[in-house]
Amino acid sequence: MPLEGWQILIFEKLSNGYTEEAANPIWQYHKYIPYSKPDKVHDQIKFYGTPKDLDDFCLKMAGFYGCCSAAEPIHVQLNLAAYSIEVV
Fold first, then answer.
1. What pTM was computed for the model?
2. Which residues on neighbouring strands pair with residue 10, listed in sequence order?
3. Which of 4, 7, 35, 52 could disulfide-pair with 56, CB 3.0 to 4.6 Å?
4. Closest Cα to residue 10, out of 2, 20, 22?
């Protein structure tokens, strides 16, 4: 990936208190889905602090994804010991 692809998002604070994310063209090409929706959802990555670089962004994103996954009401998984599907 060219170096310009390593550029992290630009976070722009809007007048309504929400944040808008601007991804670089490479992220846009790969269909980056923002973690904020202006007027609907506050920026969920910046709750963990403003990312300093790509590694920090990935760490904050992995933390957010982990919280979402852990808090889901129903989780379908494969039990490798019994090789069966379980709903938790």
1. 0.60
2. 22
3. 52
4. 22
